[in-house]
Amino acid sequence: IPQIEVTFDIDKDGIVHVSAKDKGTGKEQNISITASTNMSKDDIDKAVKEAEQYAETDKKRREEVDAKNNAENLVFQCEKALTDFGDKVSESDKAPIQTKIDELKNALKDNNPDAIKTKADELQKAFYELSSKVYSQANPNGAGVDPSQFTGGNTSSSNNSNDDNNDGDVIDADFTEE
Fold first, then answer.
1. How many CA atoms within 13 Å lie on the side-chain side of 45?
2. Residues 132 and 62 in one domain
3. By residue range, what is the domain housing residue 71?
């Protein structure tokens, strides 16, 4: 049974070097595979100039697409939240939000970037007010969180006023990443 050892090496320029050696006879063959580009230096320079020329247009288009995607995401989140709120929110409180959602959907259909941004901001502000109201009703004692309910450390800086009374050992260590 012939045994052939084949090796593949790819160098930094993307050139593939393939060698095959028959272990029984000792014969070896090599081949190099290079990528052939049909672009001349002038074509490459032209492509670079076009990329630079259209960079601002590309940036503007990217911002428009991002704004549209964010607006679609906002519509989805607001509709889902309104459903999740259920009867915790009155219909009179939901109506302005639903109106803003519909206005944003229309702006998305018209594909007007300025209108999309404006309507998205309006919806976000209105929804923030509604969600603040819902969460303040859920926590009538105040919207804040009591830090003492968390465990694992002191929450008051006044408890650390005496540096001589440390509970834990502090160890400085050096490390290296490999």
1. 3
2. yes
3. 57-138
